[in-house]
Design brief:
This protein has strands at about 20-25, 35-45, 55-60, 65-70. By secondary structure, it is mostly beta strands. It has one domain. It has a four-stranded antiparallel beta barrel. The radius of gyration is 11 Å and the shape is globular. The termini are close together.
């Protein structure tokens, strides 16, 4: 299991994330907190292969955030 008390220092790369993937994200307003959100990826918004804070996605509920962990 992972410790959700701080952002993941090694978030998954874009190639591991596809629409339909269940993930934990951190929304921008919650950076530095442990307010993570679980959901299903609808769209991938980051075009690069890897990002230090995580790949930005939109979940099926409309939330936008950076992927910290795959479920």
């Amino acid at each position: 299991m992972f410790n959700k008390a701080s952002d993941n220092p090694n978030p998954p790369p874009r190639l591991e994330i596809k629409p339909g993937t269940p993930v934990w994200i951190i929304e921008k307003e919650n950076y530095g907190t442990n307010n993570y959100k679980q959901g299903i990826v609808q769209d991938i918004l980051t075009s690069v292969g890897k990002h230090s804070r995580g790949i930005k996605v939109r979940l099926t509920d409309g939330s936008v955030g950076r992927v910290q962990w795959l479920i």
